[in-house]
Amino acid sequence: MIFVLGATGKVGRALVPALLDAGAAVRALTRDPAKARIDPRAEVVQGDLDTADLPALLDGADRVFVLTQGHSTERETAVAQAAAHAGVTHLVKLSTTGVYFGQTDPITRAHAEAEQAIREAGPAWTILRPGAFMDNRFAWLGSIRDENAVYVPEGDPASALVHVRDIAAVATLALTTSGHEGATYELTGGEALTTAQQVAILADAIGRPVEFVEEPETAARERMVRRFGWPAEAVDGFFALKRESAEREHVVFDTVERVLGRPPLTFAKWARENAAAFTYHYGG
Ligand SMILES: NC(=O)c1ccc[n+]([C@@H]2O[C@H](COP(=O)([O-])OP(=O)(O)OC[C@H]3O[C@@H](n4cnc5c(N)ncnc54)[C@H](OP(=O)(O)O)[C@@H]3O)[C@@H](O)[C@H]2O)c1
Q1: pTM for this predicted structure
Q2: Which residues form the pocket of ligand 1, taking CB atoms under 6 Å from any ligand atom?
Q3: What is the DSSP secondary structure assignment for residue 31, as one 8-state letter?
Q4: CA dist list (Å): 66 to 3, 126, 162
Q5: For residue 51, how far is its CA from the centre of ligand 1 (angstroms)?
Q6: What is the mean pLDDT of the chain?
Q7: Buried b vs exposed e over 79-104: b needs ≥16 C-beta within 10 Å?
Q8: Which of 71, 115, 211, 249 can pair with 159 through a Cys bridge, CB separation 3.0 to 4.6 Å?
Q9: Same domain, residue pair 48 and 176
Q10: Burial class of residue 34 (count of CB atoms within 10 Å of its CB; 0-12, 13-18, 19+)
Q11: Ligand 1 atom with the shortest distance to the CA of 31
């Protein structure tokens, strides 16, 4: 049985059905099963990683997908050590390309430390290091729906955005087939697109022009606090990561194609899949 942390997150939502389709038995963790909408073929377990009885959650698990929100090395170390005690044979950790590039922002540092804890815990391991997700562009939902516009901080870099289904597909192979033990995979899409190009692709999928507005970082910070309710600390962490990753977000790795034997999914495909969500509300 494969135990999936973050089962209701962007990657987890794609991973759980992919594992089930591959024939695996899946135990999915959520803090709130009533809201979780997890694939009914999975066993759903309730738990908060800050307080959970890890040995009980891990009982009977052979492999674990390790993803924690909040970038807590402590949580991942605790999971890795409890998994080793529970007889888990393989840990697959979701990290970030920032570790490959040696970034020193707090989010990347926490991932680097957690990677080390996973490698040292005892079970076999595979580290997945995705770059920025296409799903991050859901942050544009509100302004596209309300104002038919996208606001980005000035100097936003071109980015080789990766589709979460590609991350999930690689994770599925690592968790259900052999040959991925001890591997570290950097995962990106197949092409770097500027934000202006991304907006044009999305506008094409939606079927109407969308205004593209670059704004100073101070205005972008204010927008994140106002629109998304992010705490100031989270906004600082985000911009610290962005400053460091800006020079490298365009870098394309061929890992998805090498591991999956097919090209990565494109942003145009992501835009078509999600166009309906972006059109809702706008009356202009
Ligand atoms: N976004 C990017 O571009 C990007 C790029 C590279 C790497 N990453 C990494 O990807 C990870 C985030 O993945 P994601 O975007 O899939 O996350 P997400 O969509 O934000 O989902 C977070 C998941 O964590 C679970 N969770 C949160 N707090 C928890 C707790 N205390 N106990 C148990 N479960 C908890 C949530 O489950 P419930 O709410 O159901 O409990 C949810 O399933 C981060 O480590 C991030 O650094 C992101």
Answers
A1: 0.93
A2: 6-12, 29-32, 36, 48-50, 67, 69, 71, 94, 96, 107, 130, 132-133, 136
A3: S
A4: 9, 10, 19
A5: 17
A6: 93
A7: bbebbbebebebbbbbbbbbbbbebe
A8: 249
A9: yes
A10: exposed
A11: 41
